[in-house]
Structures are given as C-alpha cells and as structure tokens.
Amino acid sequence: MAMKRLDLRQKILVAGTLFGMFFGAGNLIFPVHLGQLAGSHVLPAMTGFIITAVGIPILGVAAIGITHSDGLQALASKVGRGYGCAFTCLLYLTIGPFFAIPRCATTSFTTGIQPMLGGQVPQAPALLVFSGVFFALVLLLSLRPAQITVWIGKIISPLFLIFLAVLVISALLNPGAPVSAVQPAPGYERGALFSGFIEGYGTMDAIAGLAFGIVVVDIIRGAGVTEDAAVARDVLGSGVLTGLLMAGIYVATILMGAQSRGLFETSENGGIALAQIAGHYLGGAGSLILAVTITCACLKTSIGLVTSCAEAFVRMFPGSLGYRTWAVIFTAFSFCVSNFGLSRILDWSLPVLMFLYPLAITLILLALTGRLFDHDRAVYVCVTAFTCVSALFDFLKTLPQPLRPEGIVALAERFLPWFDLNLGWVIPALVGFVLGMLLRTLRKR
C-alpha cells in the first residue's frame, strides 16, 4: 500500500503557513541593510545571507520531522535532559521577550512612525507611548488570539507583500546607483561571503525553525499523512517551497538596499533605510502605507511569539504558572526592552546569536546525519561541548566595547582557526564529532 503524501495544493498551503511564521518585518530590515553594506560585493554577501537566513532554517524544520521529535526540547535532549531544557528556554527567550518581540515594536516605530514625526517630537517619549499602546494590544489579543491572528494573516500580510512588491519594483527599475559603482563597507571588501553569513543570524530564523518544526509536522499529520518517512519528505518539500519564496524576496531587497546607496548614506539600521527608500519612491502616501502595514505585520508576529513562548513555558514547567501569567510577564518584559531602541536591541542581540547559532547549526546537522551514528548520545555530547566552548569566544568577541575582554579575545584569535571570520566554532565542532565517533567505536568494541 502506497504511503499517503501531500498533494501540490496541500504543500503550497503548508509552505504558505511556514512562510507566515518565518517572515516578519525583521526579515526586511536585515537584507536592506546588508545591501547597503555590501555594495559591489553584493553577490557573495547575498549567498552567505541566504545560507543562514533560508537554508539553515529550512533544515531546522526538516530536522524535527526527520528525527520524529515532538518538539525542540525532545531534539535537544539527545545531548542530555538538562541541556535540552536549558537550550529550549534560552532559544524561546531569544526569539521571544529578550529580542524578537521588542524588535517588532521598535521596527514598527523606527520604520513607520519616526519618519512621520520628523524632529518635532523627542524620540524617547514617542517610543515609550507607541510601545505602550503596541504591547497593550499584544497582551489583549494574545489572551484571545484566534480570530485576530487569522484576520491579520489573511489581509494584512498579503497587503504588506503587495506593497513591498510595488516598492521593490519601483526601486529596481529606477536605481539610485548601479550596484557595481557602490563602494562596500569595511568588512565587506574582503570576506563578504562570511559577513553576509553572520548578518543572516539577525533574522533569528534558524533558531526559530527549530521551534516551528513541530507546528509544521502537526499540520502535515493533520492532513492525514501518518507514516514518519512520508512526514519527513513532506516537511522537506514544503520547506523548499518556502525557502524559494524567501530567497527571492531577499535577493530583491538586498539589491534594493545596494542601489539605494546612490541616494542615501549607509543607515544606522535597516529600519531607517527601508523608511528612507519608501519615502523617496512612493512619497508621503507610501510612508503611511508602510507604517500601517509594517505595524500590523509586527503586531501579528508579536502575538504569535507571545502565544508560542507562553505555551512552551507552560509545557516545560507544568504546575507552575498558567498561560495568562506567562503572557503578562513576557509582554511586560518586552515593553521594557523595546524602549532601548532598535539599534541597541540589534547590538545586544548579536552576542547572544553568535553563541546560539553554532549550537543550533550543529544540533540540526547532527539530527539530519544521525543515522550515520544511530543518534549516539556520545556524538551529540562531544560536538555540543566543543561547539559551546568555542562559541563562547564568539559571544565575548561581539560584546559592546566596554564589556569585551580583549585579552581573552586576542587569545582566541591566536589559537582558533577562522575566528576572524566569526567561524571559530567550526574546527572544534569537527574535532568533537571525530572524538564522539571514536568513543562510540571503542564502546561498541
């Protein structure tokens, strides 16, 4: 009897759901800014960015399906139960109240509201008022999210994509400067591929993919696909469709950012760049449409993140706090963090992502190749331990200047290969894999 598989329409539906979970306003500010930084070296930078912002997130979703795990904690617990709980908590807090949820509010303000205020209103009190209203709505709707998230997902997200298409086409047809004439920023003159690779960390999609994987698996099983092998194939097939759509948008927005350098100086962050580009090509009406659509898109994303984080913590800590209490805590904390401003949130999120991403990447790769070593715990432990220690140096390296331990960083630069490319964890991870395989072989003998 043949295994039941999703048909093309169902795959497109699952891919659309996955795209909606992945793609928010934050997925625009990073590629636009990357284009401004990369300039004439946009092609290698674009390649590196797509690897971490598209390829690895889709593999993360696939890893949940292939290993038949019932969530991130189950997958991470292949290293150990304590590690599984700690890693899951840190990952959800990162894509939740620590960085991603506050970034939604500050992106909405920086991209949509601040340009319309001009210099007439001080930024800090305006952000305080805006974020207060924003998170009041988030909390209200997170406590009863079903109808509003469906409504916004079916109306606002398509409206946002239509507006984005008009903006991108207008910009690409009337470039401010040819890409080949734009001077790349320092760090992109050489090693643009690796700089783009690290810039893709900012989307947080690789770590989000590990959290979203179980949602996609449940959707596919709900469509009647029950056999594990068929579920894994359909997860990967739907993920490829999602990846192609995301990659197309990234290519267009990166090129738009690079060409905008003929009109503007490199912006402090991608939110400012997006607002400038929209105002130039579409005028005041374009800026207003951008403000409304991006705020609604961020509102939808914030509701989803608060809901998923609260539900995850209820599952991880049963018998402690209820869903409503977790939702209030996460919303209040996000409100406080959002008032530090977009640039500061991006600066502080980078060290955490530099630590988390290597652990997420190696966990995904181990899950995908686990049949080679029967998912032996020794291999998981060795790879994770070596990766964790080396990723800690990347964390220290990217801390803001007053907190950066220069002596330790200099030591890592001396002894860790590729540390200057922010890939100092790669060789230690390979060493850990070899050691884990050796231990497994000795134990079997």
Give a description of the structure.
By secondary structure, the chain is mainly alpha-helical. Helices cover 76% and strands 0% of the residues. The protein has helices spanning 8-22, 26-38, 42-66, 72-76, 81-98, 100-117, 123-142, 146-173, 192-199, 205-222, 228-259, 270-316, 323-338, 342-368, 377-397, 406-415, 426-444. Helix 2 (26-38) packs across helix 12 (270-316) and helix 6 packs across helix 7 (123-142). The mean pLDDT is 87.
The residue-averaged pLDDT reads 87
Helix amount, in percent?
A: over 70%
Order of helices and strands: HHHHHHHHHHHHHHHHH
Radius of gyration using CA atoms only: 22 Å
| Multimer state | single chain
Q: Roughly what fraction of the amino acids lie in strands?
A: under 5%
Unreliable runs:
none
> What best-fitting shape do the alpha-carbon axes yield?
globular
Main β-sheet: number of strands, strand sense, barrel status?
Answer: none
The helix count comes to: 17
The counted number of beta strands is 0
Quote the distance from N terminus to C terminus. 40 Å
Structural class of the secondary structure composition? mainly alpha
Write the layout of secondary structure elements.
Layout: H1 8-22, H2 26-38, H3 42-66, H4 72-76, H5 81-98, H6 100-117, H7 123-142, H8 146-173, H9 192-199, H10 205-222, H11 228-259, H12 270-316, H13 323-338, H14 342-368, H15 377-397, H16 406-415, H17 426-444
Helix pairs in contact: 1-10, 1-11, 2-3, 2-11, 2-12, 3-9, 3-10, 3-11, 3-14, 5-12, 6-7, 6-12, 6-13, 7-12, 7-13, 8-12, 10-11, 12-13, 14-15, 15-16, 15-17
